[in-house]
Fold these 2 entries.
Entry 1:
Amino acid sequence: MYRLLLCFRYLRTRYIALASIISVTLGVATLIVVNSVMAGFSAEMHERLHGLASDILIECHASGGMPDPDAHLAEIHRVVGDDIEGASVSVHVPSMLGIDFNGQLITRHVNLVGIDAETYDTVSHFGRYLIHPENQKQVDFDLREAGFAETRENFPASGWHYRRARVAYERALDEERARVEAMDREVAKLSTTLPQHPNDSSASEDGLIDEDSPESLASAGPSLGPLLPPELNGGDTSGVAATFDPATEQYPGIILGISTCSNKLRDDAGNVRDHYYCRPGDDIRMMFPSASENPKVLNQKFTVVDLYESGMSEYDSTFAFVRLDQLQEFRGMIDPISGVKSVTTIQLKLIEGADLNAVRDALRKRFPPDQFAYSIQTWRDMQGPLLAAVRLETTILNILLFLIIAVAGFGILATFFMIVVEKTRDIGTLKALGASGSGVMSIFLSYGLLLGIVGSGVGLLGGILFVDNINEVAGVIERVTGQEVFDPTVYYFTEIPTILNPFTLAWVMAGAVAIATAASVLPAMRAARMHPVTALRFE
Amino acid sequence: MNNSSNTPILQARGIRKSYYKNQIELPVLRGVDVAFARGEMSALVGRSGSGKSTLMHLLATLDQPDEGEVWFDGNRVDNLSRRGRDQYRNREIGIIFQFYHLLPELSALENVLAPAMISRSVLGYFRQRKSLTARAEAMLDRVGLLDRKTHKPCEMSGGEMQRVAIARSLMSEPQLLLADEPTGNLDTETGESILQLLRQLNTEDGLTVVMITHDDAIAERADRCYRMQDGLLVDRFENEPANPASASRGNIATKPLARAVSAA
């Protein structure tokens, strides 16, 4: 009984010991904050990585792809059918994206993916990241009228509405330009008689209109039509370049990753703004190899129907999606005789709780790499280095922070030795009154335990409070230092993601308490071994 | 236990104790035989360095003799296990120190309760809490400090602290009180009241009191007096109550003062 009473009294009266556990408190709070932010980041990352990549990816490295995907799927179902929830086939082809922006051609290397809109959403969260709310429900490669990202600030007007306005503007501009040109010619003709004749003052209505000469259009702005050779124009509007009306018609639809056609920049006021090179309703072109044995570069025009923003810059800046059947047709992946179509990729979604690696290994066994040029990977395999790096970072941070707490433990050790020396006479008194050595030891051990609990408990509370208000705290730090803590141009989240894992909290607490208790063992043993007569005489 | 009144309650037989410093033997006690009779108030008197404190520590089993035996109430206690000696100190005897040795974190009442807390587990203590508190309050009342029970030692005077220490030593109803210079740190008047209290406990409760002192005037107040010198018991004499003749053996310098006290 006296042990409890005494160690509670010591706790209340020895402020020096409380000071010595501040480092434990800080260590625990830091550990909790770091762990929950790291967990938040990696969960967000997992979510996004996994949401985009299906569980298992079977890729064929041949440029012509694997023929007859239905037979493959049937075989896959036969091998691991029990674990499969969904499957989708697609064509992945490296390609170059060309965007005409203010008369300049912006090119980007992207991965062009032909997807089957019906099944693609069963293997990944593709639709969720589209900008148009209707497309999030059901992907449609036809341009929608309007309503893109209405909640988004500064998102430019898009869709048919925008397309018609743009076409009308371009036509008016072309007309005006042609008129000015005609007038220039007129002026040139007259210049022999009238050498000085400023253009602008002689604006008259009698200028000739030169219908759509390609040269004039090429320099006229965003319209891409004339840039392309007529034979490559249009998929479903094949060979009708001359009659293609951009105000009412579109090229095959394409969904671009948002970073392929936009830039995050900071304006003068310091706010992050997106600048778009093209938007839904604009036309772009893609250059990609055909699937034949002598690959040729195909140059195909598409109309952007939506943008795609997952928050993973790797995906957002490298992917463009089109319809599978269209891409197969463009690349010549449909056998003209048998009509069998080829794909390059099969994606599988497994049921909840299925063993990814087991399914992968079963598939690898069925399609051994020495016979099939297939690479079969789980999403973890594909993101392995990234996930491993995050894990390593978390582990090292935890070790470092626990070392900090261990340093705090030595502080406690020193303080406890001081307290034991200070309490020498009391220890003698207790022994004279019949307290045993182990009883005296347990006073100091439970004192250490209590200090550890108080210290890490305060740290726990502080850490949880910090994590709960981390974005406000970041805001305050930004205001005070003028330095942005969490830069949205770097990260794709607007807020710092955090996850408080009760298990982590528990082991951080337990570790800190154990360190504090361990630090009190030596002083407590010293107290227990003290000779009562020496202790009583201690001055 | 043997309760017959003719056996001494506490007995030391042939006690030898030496301290070692740099392998040189410093004998402190060189064969001490002493027996304290039940119900008596005795004093061990001697100059500092005479070994009286060491003897007291051995009697209280705070230390162990190199040679010899300590018997308490017909049982040998010096060779008991650690646990047995802890129990002996906790239950059979009460100890009072020159510097009171109260625990500064605890109130007067809690200090008095300390021996009871030490001998009981948390549960055991809580089960008997009411009766124990009542006994502790009675002990504080006995020393006249019941109204100070919530005060911490730092809020008390030396005499009050020594009274609390006495109350604490009485907590586990001991038969024997060992007092190491109980008045050594107090002024004469306060010391006198402590001595009166000890005497009162001796006469009213039949408590055996063994007092250690360097002051002959205080030794005179005991029924029986043992003088120690250089680790040996050199003299043994009985005091008549308030007998001025026996005072002549005392220190001349303290004599008038001692008279004044006893006259007061």
Entry 2:
Amino acid sequence: MILLSPVAALGRATMAMVATLGRVSMFTAQTLRHMITPPYYPHELWHALIAIGWLSLPVVGMTAVFTGAALALQIYAGGARFSAEAVVPQIVAIGMTRELGPVLGGLMVAARVASSVAAEIGTMKVTEQIDALVTLSTNPMKYLTAPRVLAATLSVPILVAVGDAIGIMGGFLVGTSRLGFNEATYLKNTFDFLEVWDVGSGLVKGAVFGFLIALMGCYFGMNSGRGAQGVGAAVKAAVVASSVLILASNYLLTEAFFSS
Amino acid sequence: MIELQNVKKAFGSNAVLCGVDLSIAKGESMVIIGGSGTGKSVTLKSVLGLVTPDSGTILVDGKDATKGDRDAFLERFGMLFQGAALFDSMKVWENVAFRLLRGPRKKPRAEARAIAIEKLRRVGLRESVGDQFPAELSGGMQKRVGLARAIAADPEIIFFDEPTTGLDPIMAGVINDLIREIVVEMGVTAMTITHDMTSVRSIADKVAMLHEGVIKWTGTVAEMDATDDPYVQQFIHGRATGPIEAVR
């Protein structure tokens, strides 16, 4: 029996994981259905766009500018080992648009938005506000989840685009003020080298990350346990799950977009 | 009007409802009493579909409550939650007018606001309260706003979940009087769950006692006072000794 207990524990963990996967899949399917079928709540969508998109601009901008600046320094120092310091503008541009803009922007939005969505919906659940919505003939999936997921899916790519521009500007500032690049040459090298798909692939990633962030915030909020501890656990789970999903889906999307 | 037949519900190994049979006539105010954790809230939430029973039948006007158009079904109900359950991101009047600002009963914003203010006045609150947020109100005021929201769309059936819990005796009396007035005035069918005996005497036409997942006793308030049922006697007099275990 003692020998079998680890196997039993592994079996229980596997069963729990599969059950969670099933619940998340059903939640995702329901969310998609409620996003495309009426009634729609444009007022809630507008509020979510402001809360998720507009109010995330400062944190995404700050992340991007420092990332772009540090990236320029790293590439300059690393490139010097094989006399490739001149590629700083091109690598900063490709690094920001394809990877660092969407991934770091996504992670910062996950920390800010998945936590707040899970806390808000979780608190609504424990204070019976979700039940109140149902008794007022309003489907909580349609009223709370669909607008937030749609808003995040639409606004995170825009945040990524803004982050790309600010990150490239961070590299430009460091490149021209600290590394001795000519301003016009730096910009010319950046834009001559950058392709539309470099930016486009990052925006697609941003849309996927936005969807996952809001979905996880809503899922864990809706399934929050009782009391302050339950809401705290929901917030933690939402941030961890959305962060891991961003990194995992980033790999899969990169594989799909760029592996030849 | 509302009929529960052999309704059962368990959460894991914890059987909460073990075959509830209850009948509430149209226009009647039924109060369900019972100790904490005896399944009163689960009974109420089962009728509304917030909890799905494992077995049994719930009929409203002879029709199965679990079948048919859900929105149309819920349109007939109003509900006052134990903690009021007001939406804290909205102003008080928007809470009251929630149903009137969206869905099939949607009205122009000014008209919805006017109705909300009228309902707030009906529960004894000034117009200025309408522009405050729920967090700015006391517990008693929040309950009154919850009551205004429950009656805003003129429902046929109103449920009250522990309407006086957490209130001082005077405010509890105000809420009890308001509930009684509104039930009589609107001619609605009401179902209240409480363990406050003052509430029972103020609100009830009939009383049902829920214990160990079944309805142990049903009767009028006068019959409740006269009955020699040991469960009812222990509960209404708040005795620590008797057939109901004090530690559950």
